[in-house]
Write a structure and sequence with these properties.
The complex is a heterotrimer of chains A (about 300), B (about 300) and C (about 250). By secondary structure, chain A is mostly helical. Chain A is built from 12 helices and 4 strands, in the order ααααβββααααβαααα. Chain A has one domain: ABC transporter involved in vitamin B12 uptake, BtuC (Orthogonal Bundle). In chain A, about 75% of the residues lie in helices and about 5% in strands. In chain A, the strands form 2 sheets. In chain A, strands 1-4 form a two-stranded antiparallel sheet. In chain A, strands 2-3 form a two-stranded antiparallel sheet. In chain A, helix 1 runs parallel beside helix 5, helix 2 packs parallel to helix 4 and helix 10 crosses helix 11. Chain B is built from 13 helices and 2 strands, in the order ααααββααααααααα. In chain B, strand 1 and strand 2 form a beta hairpin. Chain C has 2 domains: about 150 residues, Rossmann fold; about 80 residues, no CATH class. Helices cover about 40% and strands about 25% of the residues of chain C. Classes of the chains: A mainly alpha (about 300), B mainly alpha (about 300), C alpha/beta (about 250). Chains A and C meet through helix 12 of A and loops of C.
Chain lengths: ~300, ~300, ~250
């Protein structure tokens, strides 16, 4: 029982980083109804740029963080221009394929920057671990959870209480109606990409600073964890992304504990696959009736 | 031909099977990021047949194709009801699941005093059919191309048949196809099964050509390439994906200064094509024009003689 | 031929159709009119199985087809056209019609592997006959996307002819057409489509409605508000109010 609770706690801690990644997917899906598979790779490229400075010029950790954020946002804007803006709005699948190949492109660019398998990533968190009853809370993970909670809160305020948030929600409801009301939808979409890249950059930096190392698998890892978490929670829903991220963290923690390390990722994919087959809308998403959705789109 | 050239040509041939596999699904209007799963399943199944059960190569290829095809049809029956975006993600999830399962599976049997079979992350070694029969790389390459030619002819015949027309209807407008009496999901499951067979044949050949396979080879990178070949070469004809393979493996591999930056060039090329020619170089309209031109030239020739 | 009982269709909170009862006897040309958003196309979609109705029953030719998928309903002998025209754009005119025909009768595994129709064969003759009837035989090798609008609408009709559908549903067959083209379409419906078939026509253009329909049904906000002989229905005060109120009838 203690193990179970401890695993759940660890899972929630770790899941908070998945939640941040899922937010990146869910906002893009909410606004554009498309999936950006290059999300993880843009974070990876940003983080590699930061690491590159760290490796070659031993810069301060804050500079690494700033570089990671700036380069992630730049990569995000590049993806938006090439894979989303330039492709017709009704061609959601073409955008996804395009972001898929750009994923590989960004990954290779990152590997050219730093060709070795692993690099040390500067540690940022200084908080120590503490115990609460029989349970152990690791300092850096607790920091992550707090950071995630702060960012979700900030995003919520941004979306609900600012003009930009209103514009974003208007575009996600109906781009055409938003455009008629004088909203520059293209600009909103670009801003949405910049915003999620910022969130992703923060998440990426926090995750890597916790791990204290970076590998070329980070892009794949970030994309899949964020994507799975979003699809579990419900596509296009902010609370869904948070819920999905935490759930994914908890399930992985249990799978790892009871079945072994090699089942951790497998359980995540299995969960995603089962979810897609049984309830494609996700937990908080509305149930999507394929035929009706199809008809609504095209008839 | 030296071994390097033979290896490159053989790779082109084997990759073509996955490219055709992804193309067949693209034809019916669904995008799979996960055909590498069936390539991998075919490779493991065929390897098990010849190296563990000591069956002849044709049985290995047959078993590889059947295992991959059945699995693909099964998965398709579960997932092809989903909308496009969800289906694509499910293929990605399934492919990664297969890869991770292959990383775990350890089934080894003793053959001639040695343990043979899938050994988890270490891969599946000693698929030595070629060595035991003393078959050269060149001869195996001929086998690859013979099978590829066979598959290509079959695909071109399908293209001319009602089935090909049905696949194109689904790809063009699935609601309209439904309204005209076609069981959309059923025909897509059929296409997924056939696509699985194609990928499985490719995998079976690959396992025997390289004599070992490991799960890491069947990663998303292979899936991206398989999908991209059809999108580069064009969806108007089965030659499209082969042109895509030739451009990538032939051209980009050959040009020196691109080496090391191949994925950057390749990714950029595909992204630009998706913007300017979303259905590839040889899309349906260009194929139609080419055919019309050939027909006119043929008529003029007949009239002249 | 077609019977609707208490047909209802909701999209979330919106009731696009409610309590529709309708009987279309064999051989009739029924017109359905109503303002935009009154549920005309929703009715057509529910009948053809694009989506299942939320409540009520649909019967076609004696079979209860409520909740059936589109392809099963189509195979019973029903064909339709679309408000915004759906063709296979990268197939030729000939291929579009041939596709409609073999989609209905695939003929098992061997049938599926049969090659394209040969010139002079049975399939070819049927397709050519359908194209001849709508006047498209000359452009048989043209890609469907290159056709002008009236020809595309006629191609949709050829598709219904070649499968010899018992019931043909036409969704705004004269949408976007000039008066001359509309008159031509009315002639095609009267002389080519109607003989031997039952038709349901959705249309805004009074010229077409009064020219071809034998009976008229008026929808407003998803409800049926009138039904009867065209002249009599169009005379009713409530119809004039919701539908024609203030707008020039000839091009509403």
């Amino acid at each position: 029982m203690i193990d179970f609770v401890q695993n759940t706690v660890d899972g929630i801690m770790f899941g908070s980083s998945y939640a941040l990644l899922a937010i990146g997917f869910t906002i893009v899906f909410g606004v554009l109804r498309r999936i950006n598979l290059a999300f993880g790779a843009s974070i990876m490229l940003g983080a590699y740029a930061g690491t590159w400075l760290h490796v070659h010029y031993q810069v301060n950790v804050l500079v690494v963080a700033l570089t990671t954020l700036v380069c992630t946002v730049l990569a995000g804007i590049y993806v938006e221009r090439l894979c989303f803006r330039a492709i017709r709005r009704d061609a959601a699948l073409a955008s996804m394929v395009s972001s898929f190949v750009i994923w590989m492109q960004l990954e290779e660019a990152a590997v050219h920057l730093l060709p070795e398998r692993t690099y040390a990533f500067p540690s940022f968190f200084v908080a120590g671990s503490f115990e609460l009853g029989p349970f152990l809370f690791r300092g850096e993970q607790t920091t992550m959870l707090v950071l995630a909670a702060l960012m979700v809160g900030a995003l919520h305020l941004l979306l609900r209480h600012t003009r930009f948030g209103l514009a974003l929600r208007a575009v996600s409801e109906s781009p055409r109606a938003a455009a008629y009301m004088g909203i520059d939808t293209a600009w909103v979409m670009l801003c949405a990409f910049a915003l999620v890249s910022l969130v992703g950059g923060v998440a990426g930096f926090a995750i890597l600073a916790t791990d204290e190392q970076i590998t070329p698998f980070f892009g794949l890892w970030a994309t899949f964890k964020g994507l799975i978490a979003m699809m579990l929670g419900g596509m296009g829903s902010l609370p869904g992304a948070v819920l999905g991220g935490l759930l994914l963290g908890v399930i992985e923690a249990h799978a790892q504990w009871y079945l072994g390390n090699e089942y951790k990722d497998l359980s995540a994919y299995l969960l995603l696959f089962a979810m897609l087959v049984l309830r494609p809308g996700g937990i908080l998403g509305q149930r999507i009736h394929g035929r009706e959705a199809l008809a609504f789109r095209r008839v | 031909m030296d071994d390097y050239v033979i290896t490159v040509l053989s790779n082109i041939g084997m990759i073509s099977f996955v490219a055709l596999s992804a193309y067949l699904l693209l034809l019916t209007g669904v995008i799979s990021f996960g055909q590498q799963a069936y390539f991998g399943l075919g490779a493991y199944a065929a390897g098990a047949a010849t190296a563990m059960l000591l069956l002849p190569i044709w049985a290995g290829i047959l078993i590889g194709a059947c295992v991959a095809g059945l699995m693909a049809a099964l998965v398709g029956a579960l997932t092809l009801r989903l909308r496009g975006l969800y289906f694509s993600i499910s293929t990605l999830a399934f492919a990664e699941m297969v890869r991770l399962v292959l990383l775990i599976v350890e089934v080894q049997v003793e053959v001639d005093g040695e343990l043979v079979g899938p050994a988890g992350a270490e891969g599946f070694h000693d698929i030595r059919w070629m060595f035991e029969r003393d078959i050269s790389l060149g001869e195996f390459m001929l086998l690859i191309y013979a099978l590829l030619a066979l598959v290509l002819v079959a695909l071109l015949l399908i293209e001319r048949s009602r089935l090909g027309s049905i696949f194109r209807m689904l790809g063009s407008d699935d609601l309209l196809a439904d309204m005209q009496g076609l069981n959309v999901v059923g025909y897509r499951v059929l296409a997924a099964g056939l696509a699985g067979v194609l990928a499985g044949i490719g995998g079976a050949l690959y396992a025997h050509f390289t004599t070992y396979v490991e799960p890491q080879f069947f990663n998303v990178m292979l899936g991206v390439h398989a999908l991209a070949y059809g999108l580069i070469g064009g969806l108007g004809t089965a030659f499209g994906p082969l042109i895509g393979v030739a451009i990538d493996v032939g051209f980009l591999e050959a040009v020196r200064f691109i080496q090391g930056y191949r994925m950057i060039v390749f990714g950029g090329l595909v992204a630009l094509l998706l913007i300017f020619m979303p259905r590839g170089l040889l899309d349906e309209e260009r194929v139609h024009r080419l055919k019309a031109r050939f027909r006119r030239r043929g008529d003029a020739h007949a009239a002249g003689s | 031929m077609l019977t609707l009982q208490g047909l209802e269709k909701r999209f979330g909170a919106l009731a696009a159709l409610s309590g529709i009862d309708l009987e279309v006897p064999a051989g009739e040309i029924l017109g359905i009119i109503g303002p935009n958003g009154s549920g005309k196309t929703t009715l057509l979609n529910a009948v053809t199985g694009v989506y299942p109705p939320s409540a009520g029953r649909i019967a076609f030719g004696g079979a209860d087809i409520t909740g059936w998928k589109g392809h099963r309903i189509a195979r019973l002998g029903l064909a339709r056209t679309f408000q915004n025209i759906r063709l296979f754009p990268t197939m030729t005119v000939f291929q579009n019609v041939w596709a409609a025909q073999h989609a209905r009768t695939p003929g098992g595994l061997l049938g599926l592997l049969r090659s394209r129709p040969r010139p002079g064969g049975g399939d070819t003759r049927r397709v050519e006959a359908a194209l001849e009837q709508v006047g498209l035989l000359a452009s048989r090798e043209v890609l469907a996307r290159h056709l002008p609008l009236p020809a595309r609408r006629r191609l949709e009709i050829a598709r219904a002819l070649v499968v010899d559908a018992r019931l043909v549903l036409l969704d705004e067959p004269a949408g976007g057409m000039t008066p001359a083209e509309t008159a031509d379409m009315a002639r095609v419906i009267r002389e080519v489509v109607a003989p031997g078939r039952t038709c349901v026509v959705i249309e805004h253009k009074m010229a077409l409605i009064t020219g071809v329909c034998t009976r008229l049904c008026v929808l407003d906000f998803g409800r049926k508000i009138a039904e009867g002989h065209p002249d009599e229905v169009l005379d009713r005060a409530e119809v004039r109010e919701v539908y024609l109120g203030g707008v020039d009838a000839s091009d509403a």
